[in-house]
Amino acid sequence: MFAYGAAVAAIVFLIFSPKRLSRAEIYITYFVMIALTIYTDLFLGLVLDLYDFINPDVSVSDLILQIALPPTAGVLALNFMPAGTKRFIGYLVLATGGVDSV
Fold first, then answer.
1. Which of 34, 37, 49, 71 has its CA 20 to 30 A from that of 4?
2. Which positions, given as ranges, span the membrane (predicted)?
């Protein structure tokens, strides 16, 4: 249930946030992210059996989350990405959760 709430919140935030990307860039990013997410998750989850979804098989609820959450996060990340190199490195560190793993 949390994942659906997060997806709805991210989509609402995307709709009402200021846009720096053009409409075409948003659509292209969204559909490329959908394709990458579905193909990689189906390959890693079903073909290689590295992890399971909610059920061992893929269900409609899995696909809804795959279509909604990662592409929205990708568009939001690209929308707020700064232009300068120094600012981009700081943004990258903050967006990926810091430097805890280094």
1. 49
2. 27-51, 63-81
